[in-house]
Amino acid sequence: DAGVIQSPRHEVTEMGQEVTLRCKPISGHNSLFWYRQTMMRGLELLIYFNNNVPIDDSGMPEDRFSAKMPNASFSTLKIQPSEPRDSAVYFCASSSNDLIYNEQFFGPGTRLTVL
Amino acid sequence: DAKTTQPPSMDCAEGRAANLPCNHSTISGNEYVYWYRQIHSQGPQYIIHGLKNNETNEMASLIITEDRKSSTLILPHATLRDTAVYYCIVRAQGGSEKLVFGKGMKLTVNP
Fold it and tell me: Whose C-alpha in A5, A102, A107, B2 is 20 to 30 A from the C-alpha of A30?
């Protein structure tokens, strides 16, 4: 299994630029989660989708952040415009409602640095 | 907010059992106890979960007290590769139920 795939693995950009993070969940999984991790705030959930529909976006910090899931095999998290305080590691995870254990499988993360 | 309390850190000697405690005194009847760990620079990894019975898998054992207000994750023979931050999480069952991560506990396995 390829696992959850995230790209890019590292992103360095300048303040004000648009940033797009990408995620391919495990095939057959119908829930997808975006998390952000910083030293100050730890690991926090930004948004999650079930069957491509956003269920809870209460963790999205502000309107600069947006997430889409156009189909079951792809999701994006966009930041526009980016700010230095957005620097963090962004993780994508997926799970299956059909799995007995409902465990979430995490990707390797995207390390974002906004200068 | 996380519904669990863990000590910030713990050390363990390689080859010995590591017993990781977690308090969840406000756990609801339909909530499970989940354990994840995060090895440095990697995404979190599922370890085990349970409702009220003790559970064991190839990675660890989970002991839940009868009143379900606390639990212990046991790594029977800790190795250096078990050094990680361990998260104890309570949540209702369901693939779309979100995980709320607290600060976790840093386990350091020493040679």
Answer: B2
> What pLDDT shows up at residue B53?
85
Beta-bridge partner residues of B87 = B36
Q: Which residues of chain B does A97 touch, with a Cβ-Cβ cutoff of 8 Å?
A: 94-96
pLDDT digits (tens, 9 = 90+) for A11-43: 999 999 999 999 999 999 989 999 999 999 999
Q: Respond yes or no on whether the N-terminal peptide bond of residue A81 is cis (omega within 30° of 0).
A: yes
Tell me the residue type at A106. F
Q: Give residue B96's pLDDT.
A: 55
CB-CB under 8 Å, A104 with B101: no
Burial (Cβ within 10 Å: 0-12, 13-18, ≥19) of residue A93: buried
CB-based contact B96 A44, cutoff 8 Å: no
Alpha helices in A18-108 (DSSP H): none
pLDDT class for B91, splitting at 50, 70, 90?
A: confident
Say how many CB pairs under 8 Å bridge A and B. Answer: 60
- Distances in whole angstroms, Cα of residue A69 to Cα of each of A22, A47, A75, B88: 10, 11, 4, 29
Q: Where are the beta strands (DSSP E) in A57-109?
A: 65-71, 74-79, 88-95, 105-106
Tell me, yes or no, if A94 comes closer than 8 A to chain B by beta carbon.
no
Contact between A84 and A15 (Cβ < 8 Å): yes
Q: In the numeric block, which tokens belong to residue A95? A: 């799970």
- Nearest by CB: B103 against A42, A48, A97: A42
